[in-house]
Amino acid sequence: MKNDGFFTKVYEVTLLIPTGRVTTYGAIASYIGSPGAARMVGWALNNCQNQDEFIPAHRVVNRIGMLSGKQHFQGRNVMQQLLESEGISIVDNQVQNFEKHFWNPNQDLV
Q: DSSP class of residue 7?
């Protein structure tokens, strides 16, 4: 992985999340060598709309599968709609069968 800064590392990992899967802010932070920086991962993803390339930030949820970043998308239910279009069921702003859909970069990108 290139060492171009924290936000770039976050975007590089986020681009690797497979369609129909989700990961967490903390899992990304851990993978890029910054455990404990989950909130900074959120800040990076909040800024990703300023990137030239589409960053699938909708695939990043909190540690229990809640859509905690949904307020940063244009429109009230855009994050949920994007996830549902990829086959992920959302009830009350939470990913259903979270363990089944969870993608762990620390295991899957080894």
A: H
- Measured CA to CA in angstroms, residue 28 lies from 62, 77, 92 at distances of 11, 24, 24
pLDDT one-digit tens code per residue, 50-107: 888 999 999 999 999 999 887 777 777 899 999 999 999 999 999 999 999 999 999 9
The pTM of the full predicted model, rounded to 2 decimals, is 0.91
What is the β-pairing status of strands 94-95 and 90-91?
Answer: antiparallel
- The tokens for 45 are 């993803």
- What is the arithmetic mean of pLDDT over 43-54? 88
End-to-end CA distance of the chain: 12
Q: Are 20 and 87 in contact (CB under 8 A)?
A: yes
Structure tokens at 49: 């709309």
- The continuous run of DSSP H or E covering 83 comes out as helix 78-85
Give all domains of the chain, ordered by start, each with its CATH number: 6-104 (1.10.10.10)
